[in-house]
Design a protein that fits this description.
mainly alpha; globular
Length: 388
């Protein structure tokens, strides 16, 4: 273990990497006796792989039973420092990474990234970009804006809507979006659905986005704005969250943004990513790569640290594995849906050619059950069982 801990001192680390290493070493020193009890056979000579090795030790191989309670926050901080270091180092490679290497990285990490599920979200929203937010049902608006809710029917929304930067903590934003969706439509109308997006287009979006907040005391913040922009034009805008700003800004070599740095977001994030070699010359070689090319501004989101728990922590997976709905008599209530949402979700399902006509004739009954909180697939399956 001692050899592992000191090995980065013999690596050719840059200034940023050296500072990261010193911060990691400081936390490791606090639990050095516990770390020394771990047998280490792998001694990477690369700093990124070194971070992965030490993080695996701190998460899976250290004996937590031997830790004192006051040491647990130190272990958590060490884990966070290492995961942020991995994010920084992987994002930093994007500055020189050619397109084939980027694609290879995504393919190799597809399982831990839950790539299939994330692509389902993007494919679902692909034909929603031209639809005004005010005309969307509540669930589609949540999917577009990045906030999970229990009302999202897993048979329709078979993905976590919070991939690509969750906005669940932006409560003021979501209240305004629910009350005045047309105000955000006005903002998004300045971003063309195809072709070049200019700085002027972006500035007009920001002016209208700020105006949406005029009727309340809530301050407009950058993160939810970038989520709307990224879902409108995933080939232009990269979404951000405050929790991931440190590694992103460090990797781009810029001063950390705050959540009100709207001007710097365009200059320092959007334009920096647009100048990277893989972004300017994607050279898509097959259908999968052409899909990636259409969402290329989102690709940095897949270079943050991820592990086997990332996919399992999907809100979709959690909702899918939620205990079966029970009656209110047992103290649990199903999540009700609005009538309009229930009607739209049912009509989408009944448009499938495989649904028999006599089941379609039960539309109103199906809508009533879905409105109560039952899933669309579950309700249609029940109707088929009863009526054949």
């Amino acid at each position: 273990m001692k050899k592992l801990l000191i090995s980065p001192s013999k690596m050719a680390l840059g200034e940023q990497e050296s500072q990261i290493y010193q911060n990691i070493l400081k936390q490791a020193t606090e639990i050095s006796l516990n770390l020394m009890a771990v047998k280490v056979d792998n001694h990477p000579e690369d700093f990124l792989l070194w971070c992965y090795e030490l993080l695996d030790i701190a998460k899976n191989r250290i004996n937590f039973d031997l830790l004192d309670d006051h040491q647990l926050p130190t272990v958590k901080k060490l884990q966070d420092l290492l995961s942020n270091a991995i994010s920084f180092l992987q994002l930093k490679t994007l500055r020189i990474t050619p397109w084939p290497v980027l694609v290879s990285f995504i393919e190799q990490h597809s399982e831990i990234l839950a790539l299939g599920e994330q692509m389902k979200l993007l494919n679902y929203l692909a034909d929603k970009r031209a639809i005004p937010l005010k005309e969307m049902i509540v669930e589609d608006r949540l999917a577009f804006s990045g906030k999970h809710a229990a009302s999202l029917d897993t048979s329709i929304y078979d993905f976590d809507v919070e991939w690509f930067s969750s906005t669940k903590t932006a409560k003021g934003f979501h209240q305004l979006l629910a009350d005045l969706p047309g105000a955000f439509d006005d903002a998004l109308s300045h971003i063309p659905l195809e072709g070049e997006v200019s700085e002027h287009d972006y500035q007009q979006f920001i002016i209208a986005y700020f105006m949406a907040f005029n009727s309340c005391e809530e301050k407009p913040t950058l993160a939810p704005a970038t989520r709307l922009l990224a879902m409108r034009r995933p080939d232009v805008f990269t979404p951000i969250t405050s929790s991931k700003l440190d590694p992103l800004c460090s990797a781009l070599g810029i001063t950390k943004l705050n959540n009100r740095d709207f001007e710097r977001y365009w200059q320092d994030v959007v334009l920096s990513i647009h100048a990277m070699p893989w972004f300017t010359k994607p050279n898509a070689a097959n259908e999968f790569e052409r899909e990636l090319e259409g969402i290329k501004a989102l690709l940095p989101c897949w270079f943050y640290y991820a592990d086997k728990e990332t996919a399992d922590n999907s809100n979709y997976i959690k909702l899918l594995n939620k205990p079966t709905r029970t009656s209110s008599a047992s103290g649990k209530r199903a999540t009700r849906r609005g009538k309009e949402s229930a009607q739209v979700l049912v009509d989408r399902a009944l448009s499938d050619d495989s649904i028999p006509e006599h089941i379609r004739a039960k539309r109103d009954s199906i809508v009533a059950e879905v409105e109560k909180g039952r899933s669309v697939d579950e309700t249609i399956s029940l109707m088929r069982t009863i009526f054949g």
